[in-house]
Amino acid sequence: MLAPLWVLGVAVVFGVVLLVTRWMGGASSAGALTLLGVSLVVPPAPGSDAGLWSRLFGIALVLVVLGRHRSNLVLRWMARRARAS
Fold first, then answer.
1. Which of 17, 39, 66, 82 reaches 20 to 30 Å from 28, CA-CA?
2. Dihedrals φ, ψ of 23, to 5°?
């Protein structure tokens, strides 16, 4: 089970990025990267002994989300580079 603090952090970042950019792929990627950071820094739950498994699950979830949005992220990055040139 993901810790409530992890979910809160991810939800806030996801919501802010979605409101600012109106881009679902970017918002879910930002949320995934937030989950990576939060899962490595914040313990999953006070008094829980499932810290390692929760962190591994969080990392696996990040890899799945970034893998699913990889083509969209690359295309967006290439379009921004082309506009900047």
1. 82
2. -125, 110
